[in-house]
Amino acid sequence: MTFSSTLLENAVNEFAKLPGIGKKTALRLVLHQLKQSPEAVQLFADTLATMRQNIRFCTRCFNVSDGPLCNICANPQRRHSTICVVETLRDVIAIEATQQYNGAYHVLGGVISPLDGVGPDQLTIETLVERVKNDGIEELIFALNPNIQGDTTLYYIQKKLGTHPVKVTTIARGIAFGGELEYADEMTLARSLQNRMPIDAYIKSA
Q1: pLDDT in tens, 130-161
Q2: What is the Cα–Cα distance from 80 to 72, expressed in whole angstroms?
Q3: Is the pTM value of this prediction over 0.85?
Q4: What would you report as the CA-atom Rg of the chain, rounded to the nearest whole angstrom?
Q5: How far from 191 is each of 10, 85, 170, CA to CA, in Å?
């Protein structure tokens, strides 16, 4: 792809660094920006820069936040005695889109994967265990991707909890083994949440 402007080429190259964006799509996005007013483009750039510079992570659940606590943790209408354990921020967004869950969350920041060099110490597992033991948590729902890494993480956390009296469940297998939550349709994900099963039953069905 040949460009008559180095400025245009640089802009296309930056857009092309985004996941799922090829050079042709990047070019369309840049040309769209060229059609906008300088004020609109500046607002777009400033919004991204402000987000990157000022965004924080919730000190309780590790979701993205504007302050010490995210909007979910700070909401008194949520059921804070129930925690849904997820891998990433995208999983929170996917579950919230179902409008079928009114509890709290805990974002692990990934899953245990020795082959990828990710161990328990690199995740927020210890903080989760502390929340369960100290904050009166009644139910822990595991909404991890149904694959080997997700199951390994689930078993590890369950072992860390030991005999602590908390109900531990996992979303039903409406999500196919090897699938990812963010790509599941909202109806399938909602039904998986509603039909969640005890961990013991999940282990037997795995």
Answers
A1: 999 999 999 999 999 878 898 899 999 999 99
A2: 9
A3: no
A4: 21
A5: 45, 17, 12
